Amino acid sequence: MNKFELKNTPQWQNLEKHYLSIRKTHLRELFENENRFNTFSIRENNLGITFDYSKNIINSDTFKLLMEFVKTAMVNEYAKKMFSGEKINWTEKRAVLHTALRNRSNTPICVDGKNVMIEINEVLNKMKKFSNDLRSGEWLGVTGKKITDVVNIGIGGSDLGPKMVCEALKYYAVGPNVHFVSNIDGADMYEVLKKLNPETTLFIVASKTFTTLETITNALTARNWLTVKLGDKAVKNHFIALSTNTKKVIEFGIDEKNMFIFWDFVGGRYSLWSAIGLSIACYLGFDKFVEFLEGASCIDSHFLNTPYEKNIPIIMAALGFWYNNFFGASSYAVLPYSQYLHKFPVYLQQVDMESNGKTVNFEGDRVDYETGPIIWGESGTNGQHSFYQLIHHGTKFIPCDFIGFVNPPERVGDHHEKLMANYFVQGEALAFGLSKDEVIENLRKAGVSLPDIKVLTPHKIFEGNKPVNSILFDELTPKTLGALIALYEHKIFAQGIMWRVNSFDQWGVELGKVLANIILPELKAQADNKHDNSTKNLIKIFNSHKK
Questions:
Q1: How many CB atoms lie within 10 A of CB 479?
Q2: Per the confidence metrics, is the pTM higher than 0.85?
Q3: Which domain holds residue 532?
Q4: 385 flagged as catalytic
Q5: Mean pLDDT throughout 119-148?
Q6: Mean pLDDT confidence for 53-78
């Protein structure tokens, strides 16, 4: 389907007509059906997941039409291509096989006639040995001291994923402290190094090409910090590389034996399942890392084998498509009610917006419909005291995902019950709001005078009808976190297929890298300034005021 055919399909046009008939229907009206929750929710007992999508502006007709569109888009057919190793990232001529990294059945998967599971298992075994040796003290620093701190140096997918997982699962940590440096701003590295002892610090340099400006700049700074204190010989004991570029790794001074490979079929934002997850294995222990992989593998199976009508990522994708392309929802809020998951929305920003922030379809034509939304959010009640006012009362239409857990890892008094009371009531309030009659009655019961009731009433009315998905896990464990991440990965993939965009390249990111390398010499007065009038003068001011 090209850009014209997509909107002209009967399935799109049927949704367009249906939207006109349901757009003003309120969730209060839809919930007059007492079986609505049973109709629009899914329970997966093997992972302890409840997915409630009943608080969406849909009825049985909407759902049927959305599933028909998903079938027309051939999402399952493309998913099979991805899982089997076909090169669905056609602009870079690459397979897309982050799913192979967590293929716990070890079923052979071939790319160019080669079973990739052989190398994947070799790297996993190497990760197991290294992480076990590091935690046990078999791996020591150059002066014979045990490693107490691991610094992961990366950016983008080489930073956001491992950082989010280590933060989310810190309750289960059994290894050395982990730190993450990504920003080329020297403050990032400075603030981490000032707390560390070079004798007990290990650096993991994560870069596919080993040429990424931010990562290599930070790695060189870390190497200088280390060697000034301990000498050049210390690099062998204190640096590990995660890369595909053996030559550059060796040139940096890292022993090839201390290099963990991954492959061009692993995109950065999907790489935490690979050797990029080494910091996770060191921090949690390798057994917990395997549990993390297993959770994602369970969702892979669910996504690939479950009919659309009961397929959680497919339904998430279809609902997001419904609001993005028919209701005009330009953004989507992800709201985890767990402080452990406070970095999850930031992580999802990259996975989603870098994947589906595209304007060109499969055929290379500019699309004439909306693609990926803006993803944002914050954890729990922090968000309630920040931006919920706008979601509840503002003019923007913002669908929300609420993520919660029945049983937290920690238990501190009645904190969790109070947290989850907010989880449930916020979802309810966004969906159903507060009517004029309810506001007047509440004010009257509170003893407010009639004149004040008249003044206050319009300010206290909440329209509601804000769509809410409730994702409720029984527990937060390595396995359920793996499942949660995979749910969103497959949602994003399905939406990419529905929008007919390549979710696995990122030419916008590449453009920034190229342009930064052009300007850098100009900031060191090594090249002429040949830019637009604004950029030219900003660079001139920067150079003239530099100390």
A1: 22
A2: yes
A3: 509-545
A4: yes
A5: 98
A6: 97
